[in-house]
Amino acid sequence: MTSAEGRSSGRTVLLVIAWLWVLAPFGYGVVELIRKVVGLFGG
């Protein structure tokens, strides 16, 4: 593996971790929003 391949692989892992860091709380917020909307309008 060359140095460029190692950096690319490390950058990909960092990018995946960053997206998970953003999407996990966002997904939780969406789930909570749906639960509250169903409770409000669904009875």
TrEMBL record:
Keyword Membrane in the entry? The reply is yes
Transmembrane feature ranges: 12-31
Q: Which UniProt keywords apply?
A: Membrane, Transmembrane, Transmembrane helix
Going by the entry's taxonomy, the superkingdom of the source organism is recorded as: Bacteria
Q: What is this protein called?
A: Uncharacterized protein
